[in-house]
TrEMBL record:
Lineage, opening ranks: Bacteria, Pseudomonadati, Pseudomonadota, Alphaproteobacteria, Rhodobacterales
SUPFAM superfamilies hit by this protein: L30e-like (SSF55315), YlxR-like (SSF64376)
Residue spans of biased composition, Basic and acidic residues class: 1-18
Residue stretches of biased makeup (Low complexity): 200-213
UniProt xrefs under NCBIfam families: PRK09190.1
Domain YlxR: 16-88
Pfam families (UniProt xref): YlxR
Name of the protein in its database record: YlxR domain-containing protein
InterPro entries, alphabetized: Ribosomal_eL30-like_sf (IPR029064), YlxR (IPR037465), YlxR-like_sf (IPR035931), YlxR_dom (IPR007393)
PANTHER family named in the record: BLL0784 PROTEIN, YLXR DOMAIN-CONTAINING PROTEIN
Length: 223
């Protein structure tokens, strides 16, 4: 079965326009910001802070562009102060939020961890979301499949999952149906945009450097 979590799987809902890309998309794929009383740009992950929302796609490039090009000030129509290294800050906040939501699901009986328990839930079709640590063994993870019609989350670390379940490390976990599960999936999707986007950017940068080095080498040989 294919791993879930593709962009097309994002929950339907209200749409907002990203100030960096200019694209309109479901709010579940963007980060809301508001301007605080002292002109500081404040991330509003829960979407509950008062004030006019400023929306940015949950991607490193979009957040960097919004911060460095003065787009927050343009959207707010006033001078603002933007936190340093905004993509990293948002990634940390989102990871903490996802971990806390999974922990709440565990306490309510809607989440389990450990290979055997997860396998049992999958076999009984009690699981609707399969979660596996990104730094877990590929061979071990391949033994479990995403629930039919369900979701897959694979971009949390074993340490982060461990925090959610009160253990040192967790590789396999599952979520059952419930109100918290939808919130976990939505917030995890935002986190994916940052983590996968960061990896893609690093890969592209590495490829560009390699191509540049190769081109330079060819030039020297011709000389």
């Amino acid at each position: 079965m294919s791993r879930g979590g593709q962009d097309k799987d994002r929950a339907d809902g209200p749409e907002r326009r990203c100030i960096a890309t200019g694209e309109t998309q479901p709010a579940s794929g963007l980060i809301r910001f508001v301007v605080g009383p002292e002109g500081q740009v404040v991330p509003d992950l829960a979407g509950k802070l008062p004030g006019r929302g400023i929306w940015v796609a949950s991607e490193p490039a979009a957040l960097e562009k919004a911060a460095k090009k003065g787009l927050f000030a343009r959207a707010a129509k006033a001078p603002v102060t933007v936190p340093d290294d905004l993509p990293t800050l948002i990634e940390q906040m989102l990871a903490r939020r996802v971990v806390e939501l999974i922990s709440l699901a565990r306490k309510s009986g809607s989440a389990v961890s450990g290979y055997e328990k997860v396998k049992d839930w999958l076999g009984r079709e009690d699981a609707v979301v399969l979660i596996q640590a990104e730094d877990g063994s590929s061979r071990g993870k391949s033994k479990l499949s995403t629930p039919y019609g369900g979701k897959y989350i694979g971009w949390l670390t074993a340490d982060e999952l461990g925090l959610a379940f009160g253990r040192e490390k967790v590789i396999h976990a599952a979520l059952g149906a419930g109100g918290l599960t939808k919130r976990v999936v939505e917030e995890a999707q935002r986190l994916k945009g940052l983590r996968v986007g960061r990896t893609d950017a690093a890969t592209a940068a590495g490829a560009a450097e390699a191509a540049k080095a190769a081109g330079g080498g060819r030039g020297r040989r011709k000389g």
